[in-house]
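<instruction>
Derive structure tokens from the sequence
<data>
Labelled lines for chain and fold:
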Amino acid sequence: MLSSAVLISAALLSVVSAAPPSSGIAAPLAEVIVNCKVPKTVALTLDDGPYIYARNISDALTAAEAKATFFLAGNTWSCIYQDENIKTIQYLHEQGHQIGSHTWNHLDLSLLTRAEVNYEMNKTEEAILRVAGLKPAFMRPPFGRYNNLVREVVAERGQKIAFWDTDTEDSWGATIERSKETIDEAIARDATSLHILAHDTYATTAYELVPYAIKQLQGAGYKLVTLAECLGEEPYQWTQKPGVKNDTWRCG
């Protein structure tokens, strides 16, 4: 995961956002999703990919007849347009997992202007639409940080913000034992449903935490589904045929 201190490109910084004239009417704010709504469901969500462990996670879930939601970043761990990443995104979608947006450079959106927030969201959503033909209905702000400006932009884009109610702490540098404890603690709460945050960019998450979570959660009577399924909503604003890669599919 990149630090929020990552510099925005000079080209982006040159964009000036002009505030629209005030009408005296508050702008709509995007809904922030914290909890699932469908009883005995779990939305396991994985941030920061696509990365080399995503297929392993998908296969473990598929073998257990489970699904997850992958919030993809455009240019964080690797460029979303790399051939292997394109294949991975298409594979995840084919396996029935949900795809969401996690912005382009993984910046703290609460520190950006309206134009910059739109840029961060546009770039990744354009890539997801090109690669998989999907227009996400949900986005997750990096670090879980947002303000009313971010909520306004997300609402204008017809989306909702996905937060979480259980953090596996894998991105904090937690040991695998601690991450497993967060699953056990969530089950012990006997919650109606769970919305879990993890990251598909760590080998321990892919090979140890996800299999453990599947076993424990299913053993406790939960069904692992996509975020949209746990809410009883649609995962995408619309879908279309994926594009064909050309010279415009690049991160540089």
Remarks:
- Helices lie at 10-13, 54-63, 83-94, 114-132, 148-156, 176-188, 203-219, 227-231.
- The chain has one domain: 32-239.
- The first helix runs from residue 10 to 13.
